[in-house]
Amino acid sequence: MRMIIKNLNVYFFIFLLIVGTVAGFLLVKPYLSAIFMAALFAAFFNRPYEYLQRKLHSPAIASSLMLVVIAVGIIVPVLLVFGLVYNEVSDVVVTITEKDSVAQSFVKDTIETVENTSVFSTVFESFEGHTSGTEISDSIKNVANYFITLVQALYKGIMNSAVAIFVMFFTLFYFFIDGKKLVKKIMQISPLRDVHEKKLIDEFISMTRATLKGTVVIGFIQGTIGGIAFAVAGITSPVLWTVIMVVVAIIPAIGAGLVIFPAAIIMLLLGNVWQGIFLAVIGVFVSTIDNVLRPKLVGNDTQMHSLAVFFATIGGLQLFGILGFIIGPIIMALMIAMWKIYAIEFKQDLEKFNA
Length: 355
Description:
Blueprint: H1 2-28, H2 32-44, H3 46-56, H4 59-97, H5 102-115, H6 118-126, H7 133-159, H8 162-189, H9 194-232, H10 238-250, H11 257-269, H12 273-298, H13 306-320, H14 324-354
Helix pairs in contact: 2-8, 3-4, 4-7, 4-8, 4-10, 5-7, 9-10, 9-12, 9-14, 10-11, 11-12, 13-14
């Protein structure tokens, strides 16, 4: 009888534990992205925080200063860049949709030139009645309008996320101060052995740091150099192109050269010789940055395979939106770290058990 009552107590406690955990999860669910970003910033800027804490002898002041640095150095510039991108996209759409605009004239002239070339005339005859310069111009308008709608929605989403930003900074303040205590409590609750937990945390931090420095930082550098080159070459909307090149450069095996080299070719076709040559040289230079900077930035940290980073990035963007290019690789790093621990520790234990 006592055993039955004891089992009922255990089952009821487990039931309450599950209900309480689910209820707690539902409470924080709207702010999971903000909490995740706070944890990421806390891990990434932990060393500067510890340095300030040692110098100032005050965790609260050190944490507050780090919040100011992150806000001024990252959050505010990102909001300003999105504002500039929105304005530039608006200007591009107005230019494209204007009747007899330079963009439409360029498209029509290019099509007429290609159609009148003997090499391509046969090909265009087979598609006669299916595609025209007007249809292509209309397609360009549709793409441009879709892009401005996307950027507008993204910009409004950022501007309307004041609560999420506040939650992120509020959480980050306490993550800096109590982050180590929180990790220790999680390790106490976890059923894993301490040695496995330490390996998991160390491997995860190493892979996350290597992924962020090896993809995000290098992508930002490549995109920024490409954007400056576009501005020097006189290409309109350089900020918009910078953002596009940063996003493209983050995806492994693609890089900003995917945008720069076509721009160089177009410049040469338009007769802008020095601009085309200049962009081609910059494209070659940007393409070599990855090989030069990655070993120095990553250092002794464990790198993920480029294919894993590729699928983690595009999958993250699809599942989590704009934050997916950070969240995706981190989730992949956690999964790989767990499988590494399994291969080293648990597999041997299972083999001994089954022997």
